[in-house]
Write a structure and sequence with these properties.
- The protein has 2 domains: 220 residues, Rossmann fold (3-Layer(aba) Sandwich); 73 residues, Rossmann fold, CATH 3.40.50.300.
- It contains 12 helices and 13 strands.
- Helix 2 runs parallel beside helix 3 and helix 3 crosses helix 4.
- By secondary structure, the protein is α/β, with parallel strands linked by helices.
- The longest helix is centred in the first third of the chain and has 16 residues.
- Strands 1-10-4-9-8-5-7-6 form an 8-stranded parallel sheet, sandwiched between helices.
- Strand 6, helix 5 and strand 7 form a beta-alpha-beta unit.
- It is globular, with a radius of gyration of 21 Å.
Amino acid sequence: MSHSAEITNHSFASLNLAAPLLKNIEALGYTQATPVQAQVIPATLEGGDLLVSSQTGSGKTAAFLLPLLHQLVLANPHGSPVPGRAQPKILVLCPTRELAQQVATDAINLARGIKSLRIATIMGGMPYGKQIQAIKGASLVVATPGRLLDLFNSRAIRLDQVECLVVDEADRMLDLGFAEDLEAIDERCKGRSQTLMFSATFAPRIMSLASNLTKDAKRIELAHAGEAHANIAQKLHWADNMAHKHRLLEHLLSDPELDQAVVFASTQVESEKIADTLRANGYQASALHGAMPQAVRNRRLDSLRKGQTRILVATDV
């Protein structure tokens, strides 16, 4: 079954979410649900598997977090102490550490002040011991596939109590080679009652993955293959050689109306070289790539958010 987006106004209050969640939504400054939220929240609460296609920036993270947090609140309305076992009810899989951190941060903000909700993050680049302690008693865990399987194989976490599995950015999961890990995780939480998959498109490889992970999934399509994002202008610049490419880049970055920019490089070495060249020419630039310790990556992303770094040169982390 497939549903296309309808542009209508929906207040969060009309979506019948738990009062503590509505209070936090209001505190965060949100009043109207986006199209993906208006469709995914009720569909998730109805039950059954979902396959959702939506663009970046559409509000899809809150679209799956809000109904799942709502269900956790209803399951423990009096905020009774949660057992300190590592056996989450909700498991959210993300392809990268940065996305996992962002999703977990969003979940923590939405769950603020609700004693029965504990959120934990599992990802590479961070100490095992700290994460093992954090997942004890967590009802919602956000994880990257590799580190999750590491902890599962060392018996630090159980997945047999998972009620809902969320696969965020499924297309990126496949790009990064996580197909086998997804199959392994699927097998370890077979008893779940719901699976939610999110992807930029419904390409054949995504549908193949969905056939393995979901059952009779309802399709909600808010992004179509080849459809341009409304807020993105795409331009192509031809370069004669690498030196010409660097001159073109500096010309683009010299635009006084450009506050900040992210430049993607194909390799870690190239990202460092470009950042070094830009700094030598007076730009506030930093590199970001997977070989860096997670703490360094966090600091550089934070510097970008605070406006202290104007240009971030990154590999596709």
